[in-house]
Amino acid sequence: MEKVLDSHGRWRNRIVSFRVSEEEAKIINDKVALSGLKKQEYIIRRLCEKEIVVNGNPRVYIALKNRLNEVYEELKRITGAGEVDDVLTEVIELIAVTMNGMKED
Q1: Which among 3, 16, 31, 103 has most CB atoms closer than 10 A?
Q2: Pfam families from the xrefs (predicted)?
């Protein structure tokens, strides 16, 4: 069988896996969706401390729209600032950074 190389000529034959909590999985999935990258590429770039540049495309805009709607519904439900959890705070910060970065382009 012939080796299948990725677009950069790398042969990726190693598997890395790990366990995360529900909250951690949600944060990872949100960050991946808002980056516009595939999960594997996002995690590799983060672990290798490479820059992640978000390019506005339909996939990113849809993820932003969907996540903003979810945040809006959650904020409507909350009656006091003490009810805002760390996951929601982190998602709001990520959305703000992403949108500010898109505005600068």
Answers
A1: 31
A2: NikA-like
Q: Is residue 99 part of a domain?
A: yes
Span 31-70, pLDDT tens digits: 898 888 899 999 999 999 898 877 777 888 888 888 888 8
- Please give the residue that has the higher pLDDT: either 78 or 20: 20
Q: How far apart are CA 81 and CA 67, in angstroms?
A: 20
pTM metric for this prediction: 0.63
Residue 38 CA to residue 31 CA, distance in Å, equals 10
> In this predicted model, which residue has the larger pLDDT, 72 or 102?
72
Residues 6+ apart with CB under 8 A from 18: none
Cα Rg, the chain, nearest whole Å: 17
Residue 80 lies in a domain: yes
Rounded Cα–Cα distance for residues 25 and 19 (Å): 9
Tell me the residue range of the domain where 26 lies.
22-104
